[in-house]
């Protein structure tokens, strides 16, 4: 007899509840039940037979896959809910008409391009460490950056006990009191650019993500979202497979 079971966190991600990692956190917190019993990490489910609930709400698989981009403003955290009652990006996509969740994250003090989807496989491919999907940031630092500091960022630096992958760094503009850089990363470590700058003694005044892979933020206004075009979705899927 065929085994139709899949890991619970994958099923939740496929249903647009949250990313696999966030789904695991929900399971560990005791907020997920399978057929009325509290679920545990490692559990599997048969989507056709088992009933899964999250905080009492039944989980259903979305038929239509959605892919969005949001221009996240500063001051919002990249989660769909927050126990500390901080502003969440969920507020900004509440009118989508379907349950979607962020693909990766931007820290609270950063702004710019943030993807959303209810496609668990897409989200997993985009965020998996082995995929190395590039991300471009516009970074305003104070007061200036030296050639040696740029060379260190480009070669890779020790952050949190692990060396970063090489980054692309170029100067866009120089002013008397600040310098604007374009930084391209091919990994998604937590607050990576801020930590790299801090290690070099540089103050980050502003950090904005302008592109993920081949998809650019463009002129989308802060706090607004739009659906990705089929061409953009296809390009991101190609980038996450390379």
What does this molecule look like?
- The protein has 242 residues and is an alpha+beta fold.
- Helices cover 22% and strands 29% of the residues.
- It contains 6 helices and 17 strands.
- The protein has helices spanning 8-14, 20-28, 120-127, 147-155, 192-199, 230-241, and strands spanning 6-7, 32-34, 37-38, 44-45, 52-54, 57-58, 67-72, 101-103, 111-117, 135-142, 158-159, 162-163, 168-174, 179-185, 203-212, 215-216, 225-227.
- The strands form 4 sheets. Strands 7, 8, 9, 10, 13, 14, 15, 16 and 17 form a 9-stranded mixed sheet that branches.
- Helix 3 (120-127) packs across helix 6.
- The chain starts with 5 loop residues before the first strand and ends with a helix.
- The model has no long low-confidence stretch (mean pLDDT 91).
Computed over alpha carbons, the radius of gyration is 20 Å
* Record field, number of beta strands: 17
Average pLDDT, all residues: 91
Distance between the termini: 36 Å
Which features does this protein show?
242 residues, alpha+beta, 4-stranded antiparallel sheet, 6 helices, 17 strands
């Amino acid at each position: 007899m065929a085994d139709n079971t899949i890991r619970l966190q994958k099923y939740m991600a496929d249903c647009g509840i949250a990313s696999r990692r966030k789904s695991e956190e929900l399971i560990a917190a005791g907020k997920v039940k399978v057929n009325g019993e509290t679920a545990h990490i490692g559990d599997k489910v048969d989507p056709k037979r088992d009933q899964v609930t999250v905080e009492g709400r039944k989980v259903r698989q979305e038929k239509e896959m959605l892919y969005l981009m949001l221009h996240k403003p500063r001051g919002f955290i990249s989660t769909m809910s927050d126990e500390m009652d901080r502003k969440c990006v969920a507020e900004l996509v509440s009118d989508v008409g379907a349950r979607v969740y962020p693909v990766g994250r931007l820290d609270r003090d950063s702004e710019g391009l943030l993807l959303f989807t209810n496609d668990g496989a897409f989200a997993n491919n985009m965020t998996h460490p082995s995929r190395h999907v590039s991300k471009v940031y516009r970074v305003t630092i104070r007061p200036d950056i030296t050639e040696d500091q740029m060379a260190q960022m480009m070669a890779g630096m020790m952050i949190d006990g692990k060396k970063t992958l090489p980054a692309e760094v170029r100067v866009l503009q120089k002013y008397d009191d600040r310098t604007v850089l374009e930084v391209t990363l091919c990994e998604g470590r937590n607050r990576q650019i801020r930590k790299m700058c801090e290690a070099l003694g540089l103050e980050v005044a502003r950090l904005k993500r302008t592109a993920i892979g081949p998809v650019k933020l463009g002129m989308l206004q802060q706090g607004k979202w739009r659906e990705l075009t089929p061409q953009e979705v296809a390009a991101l899927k190609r980038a996450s497979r390379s």
